[in-house]
Structure formats: C-alpha cells, structure tokens
Amino acid sequence: MSNPATTDCPILVWMLSLNREYTKEEYDACYQVVKECVPHENVNYNPPDADTFRQLMTLMLPLLMMRHRRIPRAKWRDCVTPTGKHWIEQIPDDLPPEKFLHSMIGYHLATENSLCGMAMTQGIQRKVINIGLGMKQLLVEPRGISMQTYVESFSHKLTQLELSMISPDLGDEVMLRRLCIIISLKQAYIKAIGQPIGFDWSRLEFNIPEETVIGDGHPLTGWEFRIFKANLGVARKEILVEEQYQCVCAFFRGTKDSKFIWHESQKELESWVQFINIDQMVKVIPKLTA
Dihedral of CA 166/170/172/177: which sign? Predict the structure, then answer.
C-alpha cells in the first residue's frame, strides 16, 4: 500500500454481494458453519427469511478472512469490548510477545440490502477496535415518494448545515448522493466509536466541502474517512438489477486533523477493497471449519 498513512494499521474491506437467490441447501450449509464456528451469535433458523441469510453470510466474513490468512479456526478467538467492538486474538503459541501484541485484528460488520461488508485492520488492540463501516444504498424508499420527502425523513439525523447542502435546486441525483454520503459517514463514525442504537446522529456535523467534522460543537480530529462506492449486479428472479451503494470506512488514527480520502476509480479500490459473491462464499464452506 503506497499511502504512507496506511503503513500503521493497514485497512482492508471485504464486500459480499448477495447477487442472486439462495437455495435451502446453501442456507443450511451456512447455518451449520455459523453454529459451529460462531456459537456466540444466535441466528434464528428460518430458511425463507432473507434477513437471516444475510446475517449468516455476514458472520462468515471473519471466518473467510482468517481462512485466507491460513490460520485454523482452533488457533484464534473472537473477543468483544463492553461497547460491542470486536477483535480477533490469535492463540499466542508460536508468536513472540512483541508480534503477538501487534497481531490483533479489529473488525466491524455491516449490512445494507444486497450488500454485506466487513472492515478490518491489524495492530495493537486499543487501536484496531476503532473501525467502522457505513453503507447506504442510493435508492429512494418507499418507491414513488419525492426526493425532497425522502430527505426530510432523515432530517432528525441531520444538522441545518447538512440540510443546506442537500437543497432541491441541486436536482434529485446530487441530492440523493449527498444524503447517502452524509448518512454513511455518520454511520461509520458511530459504529467505530461503539455507540448504541439510540445515539443522536444530529450531534455530528459533516461539512463535506470543507472536509471537516464536529461532534457536540467540537472539531473531531484524528479520524480517517475513506469514501467509496460499490456497484452490484443483482439477479431478481430473471432480471439483472444494478444497485449502487455509498460506503464509508472510518478509522481513528490519532493524527492532528481528520482526513477525507475519496476513492473514485475501481483501480484505487483494488488495493484494499475486495468484492466477492454468494458462489465464492458457498464454495469455501467446507474449508471454513478447518
């Protein structure tokens, strides 16, 4: 990774596209893996329910990541802080103490419609847990409402300044994009600091043109926000639908200011974002329990 800021605690993101319908056999295979390897997560067994399938697929991402690192399931454990922040600790058998301290893997899992994501980084425990992933599909819901009404439905999460940046004279496309950027930035930050569901989003203010952020009226420094898009092709029955997601990975680096990094091209993403789909995940199931 060429960016000097990424040498300490390099960031990696995996995006899993739920790109087609799943079979009951696939559901059962995933359920068994999660039951065996992630026993602390209680997933309701309900094959027709796509939400539970999404949950299973997301919980399998850390297993796949560790499998890629060739670390057997018996050689690592999933740990969690009191605020729900996860990190993976390897069994220190054959690791020298210094290496062991820097071998912690902090990660955060997120889902949004057809997309399951995992952001992770490696280093010392107190640093790596400060990572979060925000994702928002570029889609107006419910279908048929105006863009202005859709923006208003989020107004309780936005500040006056943020709302002024999503004004109707910009046109629907720009309004939707800006709204999704702000929402995914807030979501990534809130998840990175381990805040509970009831957190008041309007306490945060992202000034996109100035690339600054304040929380409770004070500048938030030391943060790195990586902003990018995920474009998926998803089969709905016989039709292939294109879906676009605005994504943000937030990580606390402790630098003197906060940094916004915009990744526009696929090439820029390739070094740290990996895309996989249902077929690829299902294919490795037999290896995940090893």
Answer: negative
Per-residue pLDDT of 177-198, as tens digits, reads 999 999 999 999 999 999 988 8
Q: What is the mean pLDDT of residues 93-101?
A: 86
Q: What tokens appear for 72 in the block?
A: 């057997």
How far apart, in whole angstroms, are the C-alpha atoms of residue 160 and residue 208? 13
Q: Phi then psi for 168, rounded to 5 degrees?
A: -60, -25
Q: Please, what sign has the CA dihedral across residues 38, 13, 57, 49?
A: positive
Average pLDDT of the residues of the chain: 93
* Nearest-angstrom CA–CA distance, 223 and 211: 11
Tell me which residue of 247, 181, 177, 284 sits closest to 13, measured CA to CA. 247
User: How far, CA to CA in Å, does 32 sit from each of 38, 56, 147?
Assistant: 10, 10, 43
Q: How far apart are CA 168 and CA 33, in angstroms?
A: 48
Contacts of 56 (CB under 8 A, 6+ apart): 27, 30, 31, 33, 34, 43
Secondary-structure class of domain 4-288 per CATH: alpha beta
SS3 label, residue 124: coil
Rounded to whole angstroms, the Cα distance separating 4 from 250 reads 17
The pLDDT of residue 163: 96
Helices (H), the chain: 24-37, 50-59, 61-68, 97-101, 125-128, 147-152, 160-164, 172-192, 266-270, 278-288
Q: Please report where in the chains the tokens 């596209």 appear, as a residue.
A: 17
> 82 preceded by cis ω (within 30°)?
no
Q: Is the pTM of this model over 0.90?
A: yes
